[in-house]
Amino acid sequence: MITATETKLPRLLMELPGPQAKKVIEYDAKFMSPSFSREYPLVAKKGHGAIVEDVDGNAFLDFAAGIAVCSTGHCHPKVVEAIQRQAAELIHISGTDFYHHHMPQLAERLVATMPGKEPKKVFFGNSGTEAVEGAIKLARYATKRDKLIAFYGCFHGRTLGSLSLTASKNTQRKHFGALLGGVEHIPFPYAYRCAHGHTNETCGSEILELLEQQMFKRLFAPEEIAAIVIEPIQGEGGFVPAPAFFLQELQRICNRHGIMLIVDEVQSGMGRTGKWWSYEHAGIEPDILCTAKGIASGMPLSAFIAKESVMTWKKGSHGTTYGGNPVCIASALATMDLIEGGYMENARKMGDYIFGRINDWPNRFKVVGDVRGKGLMIGIEIVRDQKTKEKSVDLRDAVINKAFNKGLLLLSAGENSIRVSPPLLIDQEQADFAIKTLEDCFREAEKSI
Ligand SMILES: Cc1ncc(COP(=O)(O)O)c(C=O)c1O
User: Fold this and answer.
1) What's the rounded Cα separation, in Å, for the pair 379 and 235?
2) 206 and 57 in one domain?
3) Within-domain flag for 76
4) Which of 93, 117, 121, 249 has the fewest C-beta atoms under 10 angstroms from its C-beta?
């Protein structure tokens, strides 16, 4: 899938960070917001396929994909070509005021990915948080209700509306004052830490009971609730999949009370789990879907897609200057061609291959508490003690740093998990490298306990 002349595996030339990287890091510290939470000193210069090269010529295997954004890898020639062609023809025209044929073209293709007979409509934005903001507004508009329910551990964005839903780390909310009123959170079905001892398939019935018997009776009457918002696989929260039955029951509850079911597929969508959308594994039909990240291989684009009967708002009720920019859409169309043309199937195949090789990690490595996920959305939870499940942030951070120094890029997720989210084009040799590297890192980390 990547040309033979390009590196497929890491190539480290020096101790990290190298001299050019050090210079950029110092420069950055002078001018850039200190709010970023960079985990290790990668200073990227260029990329191809699943490889990122830094400013000193070191090559890394990228199993982070720019937070699951570079679905088709870095600078795929077809994506680059589509961007260049469109940039030479028309860079911007605002969809709020005028038409551009690319917009309905991408909208039609996105709608076609969603199972279900009901026609759907699309609104384009620039980022995940904007898609969530729009979905909140639409749900409120469509239901004439204002209350919202989200889940502990969820991440839906950092602007003030989506931040009101986000309940991942308190640093993301601290000192930002009052958020949206009428938002409540309930636990997410987190099987590894299930208080009731359930499995991956059965965890969550007590949460549904809490929702119906406590929340609906004591806090919000269901007819006041505009939407329940869920990531079918929590991303930032630790790559934790919700069981299929849980999503199905949630759908039934929403249908019963006229509540919008909003699925946030910003991280889990666009073929990463082997299907276009991770909710498809549960066979449900959400009212509104949010997508971003992998949709345009790195160009800033997001969308929310809603049933036609839901997206009935009037002229002027929502708009955007840049959303659905022609260059981003050209990139998204090329991205969808590639995902459809084999990368989604590859994500399923490589996901199965990787799970087949790492499923027994909790038996082989005492720092690994849990391995979970779907397709190429794989979470590894790091613990100090498998019996007590004591979370270990230090060991998790140590594993990620050691991996970087061996040429493998990973990111953290949740309090103590590692997210494995490579581009969808990886091959077996690259998967084997990542598995071996992680195993070496676990062995080294284990020596410290
Ligand atoms: C599930 C989910 N929703 C929303 C967002 C926010 O996306 P953005 O950072 O593009 O605003 C993220 C980002 O990580 C996400 O993972």
Assistant:
1) 9
2) no
3) no
4) 117
- Position 72 scores a pLDDT of 98
Task: Check whether residue 32 and residue 100 sit in a common domain.
Answer: no
Domain membership of residue 373 (yes or no) is no
Number of other CB atoms surrounding residue 90 within 10 Å: 13
What's the N-to-C CA distance of the chain in angstroms? 41
Overall number of domains in the chain: 2
Q: Which atom of ligand 1 is nearest to the CA of 157?
A: 6
Structural domain span for residue 94: 81-339
Residue 291 domain-assigned (yes or no) = yes
Tens of pLDDT, residue by residue over 116-168, are 999 999 999 999 999 999 999 999 999 999 999 999 999 999 999 999 999 99
Task: Please report whether residue 74 resides in a domain.
Answer: no
128 close to ligand 1 (CB < 6 Angstrom): yes
Are 130 and 182 within one domain?
A: yes
Closest residue CA from atom 16 of ligand 1: 267
Do both 18 and 107 map to the same domain? no
Q: Please tell me whether residues 44 and 98 are part of one structural domain.
A: no
pLDDT at 1 over 60: no
Amino acid letter for position 226? A
How many angstroms does the Cα of residue 18 sit away from the middle of ligand 1? Answer: 31
Ligand 1 near 132 CB (within 6 A): yes
Residues 262 and 113 in one domain: yes
**Alpha-carbon gap, residue 427 to 406, rounded angstroms:** 19
Contacts of 86 (CB under 8 A, 6+ apart): 102, 326, 327, 329, 330, 331
CATH number, position 403: 3.90.1150.10
Q: pLDDT tens, 58-81? A: 999 999 999 999 999 999 999 999
pLDDT at 4: 41
Residue 168 beta carbon below 6 angstroms from any ligand 1 atom = no
CATH number at residue 298: 3.40.640.10
Q: Which of 374, 297, 387, 291 is nearest to 71 (CA)?
A: 297
